[in-house]
Amino acid sequence: MFSSLDYVIVDTFHAAALVIGANDNGKPGIRKQYHANYYAAFVFDPLGHNIEIVYHSPF
């Protein structure tokens, strides 16, 4: 898991990862099951590893 300083970085990371061949495993968005301010995105890298990037602060 990677921590982000801003939700825009989460969005940008997800889009860039898809461009270079990662597979979507969860579009950027709030994950209320973790907590109210958990904004994350998930991708599978070409080797199948799940990579998460998350922003924890309120909007």
TrEMBL record:
It comes from the Eukaryota. InterPro entries: Glyas_Bleomycin-R_OHBP_Dase. This is Glyoxalase/bleomycin resistance protein/dioxygenase.
